[in-house]
Amino acid sequence: xxxxxxxxxxxxxxxxxxxxxxxxxxxxxxxxxxxxxxxxxxxxxxxxxxxxxxxxxxxxxxxxxxxxxxxxxxxxxxxxxxxxxxxxxxxxxxxxxxxxxxxxxxxxxxxxxxxxxxxxxxxxxxxxxxxxxxxxxxxxxxxxxxxxxxxxxxxxxxxxxxxxxxxxxxxxxxxxxxxxxxxxxxxxxxxxxxxxxxxxxxxxxxxxxxxxxxxxxxxxxxxxxxxxxxxxxxxxxxxxxxxxxxxxxxxxxxxxxxxxxxxxxxxxxxxxxxxxxxxxxxxxxxxxxxxxxxxxxxxxxxxxxxx
Length: 307
Fold this sequence. Notes:
The protein is of the alpha/beta class.
């Protein structure tokens, strides 16, 4: 079935904060430009990696403005703005605001003060997507954080009702869910993280890749995406087999249990060494000492990644 969103490499834009928690504009723009120039087909702001849960309205407006300005130089890359809030009204207000700044693609997740029921999930999609028929929406199915996980059959039902629901970022699917997505042949594009993308690509070749661990090395990031798209089993298996070593080094150096943005900023330091690891309080990022040890150990453990 024809998909509503292209099969692209999806990457997150990280936010660099100064010591007084202000946006470092030059570093932010540099990070977005590097993704555009290294194979990203779509870049999104304000997922968990981009601290979308933490920004206030003024920060949101400033960062979206800078992001959309950078993206004017890269018309072939799809800019997407994430919106995270416990208020559906605030979600809609932020969509309106970003729309005025030029955004047309949005990533949305459920309010999470309490887990929504099945009927409440439907109300959320009908209300938010229905209010903006001119925009396209990806659902950030982040499971535990939103306290509500939808399955493949839920998306089949929603896709039939909501024509501008175009994609889902599906975190931590089971292998059964990967198979079910393929069997249902949905019009919605499904984005998977490294392990699931490799598995799904070997079996079906129709999934899209949300880069995470491989943000450490854009060369491998591009190679993994292209291998999955082309069902290049040799390359998929090579990179797939290296991921356990990556995670061993990661969690032997960096404290487990931190919020995603803490790790994503570490990965970005391989491309932008001066990118600060700090994240907005009350959450804590990794220390620079931890980051330096991780970088050194990863280069030793996986030298092929950095040739």
